[in-house]
Amino acid sequence: MQWSEIVADPALKDLPYKIETNEYGQIVMSPHKRIHAIWQGEIEWRLRQCLPSGRAAPEFAIDTRLGTKTPDVVWYSKDREADLLADQRLAPEICVEVLSGSNTDGELATKRALYFEAGALEVWLCDDTGALRFHTPEGEQPHSVLAPDFPRRLA
């Protein structure tokens, strides 16, 4: 199934799950706990505060070689906005995954690689306690390079 078909399907519009596709075009749905929504909203709000020159958005679809992935939160510069809206294969500069109990280390490593292949400059991981880990293509960093004042732990 193509992503354009998924977003146009009225039966899939109001599901309480995050929707992605795998490399076979099959729909993958992930249910979330409330803490997931809390951290997602907090990260989006703080990104707007730390990086006011760009835009933060939730669940921004990115077409990858292994299907369509939707990071929980993204940030992109206004310079990149037109390109992002024209090409769903391009990733925003920052992609954030808020982890759930079903995430595996292998899945997260694959998503990081896919986001970097699509042009992300940083991939952040937020666990269920609000602790963040910041990654660049070179590996894990002690803080965000693009948003150095972003906290390592949300309160």
Notable characteristics:
155 residues, alpha+beta, tt1808, chain A, six-stranded mixed sheet, two-stranded antiparallel sheet, 4 helices, 28% strand, globular, Putative restriction endonuclease, Restrct_endonuc-II-like
Quick structural gist:
The chain contains four helices and ten strands. The protein has helices at 3-8, 34-50, 78-86, 105-117; strands at residues 17-21, 27-31, 54-58, 62-64, 67-69, 73-77, 94-98, 122-126, 132-136, 139-141. The protein starts with a helix and ends in a 14-residue tail after the last strand.
Q: Can you give a write-up of this model?
A:
A hairpin with a 5-residue loop joins strand 1 and strand 2. The model has no long low-confidence stretch (mean pLDDT 91). The protein starts with a helix and ends in a 14-residue tail after the last strand. The chain is built from four helices and ten strands, in the order H-E-E-H-E-E-E-E-H-E-H-E-E-E. The chain is α+β, with helices and mostly antiparallel strands. Helix content is 29%, strand content 28%. The strands form three sheets. A six-stranded mixed beta sheet has the order 3-6-7-8-9-10, with helices on both faces. It has a two-stranded antiparallel sheet with strand order 1-2. A two-stranded antiparallel ribbon has the order 4-5. It is globular and about 40 Å long. It has one domain (32-141): tt1808, chain A, CATH 3.90.1570.10.
